[in-house]
Amino acid sequence: MSARDLHVEVPGDCIIVTLPGSGYSVTYYKVADGPELVAEWHSGRTEHSAPMTQAEFHARAWKAANDKARELGWIV
Predict the structure, then answer these.
(1) For a Cys-Cys bond, which of 10, 17, 48, 53 suits 61, CB 3.0-4.6 Å?
(2) Residue 4 gets which letter from DSSP?
């Protein structure tokens, strides 16, 4: 599994990253006047049938969200 397997969407001023076929999801927003993203909400449960651990998902989701934020010019 790679970051390409994650689904990234930008509904307004947040970035939502999900792992299709699982309940893993995390929402990030940009801190006002700050150069970083903050996780606002995440699914908070481990799915033993998911193709990666929750920790792996969060690490890959963080990277995918930061890549998208840079692409959008939200962060440098």
Answers:
(1) 17
(2) G
Residues in the chain with pLDDT values less than 50: 1-2
Is the CB of residue 8 less than 8 Å from the CB of residue 64?
yes
What is the distance between the alpha carbons of residues 45 and 35, in angstroms, rounded to a whole number? 28
Q: Read off the pTM.
A: 0.85
Question: What are 38-44's contacts with CB under 8 Å, separation 24+?
Answer: 40/14
Q: Which tokens hold the place of 20?
A: 């299709």
- Centre a 10 Å sphere on the Cβ of residue 10 and count the other Cβ atoms it contains: 14
Both tokens assigned to 25: 């999801």
Asked whether 58 and 42 are in contact (CB, 8 A), the reply is: yes
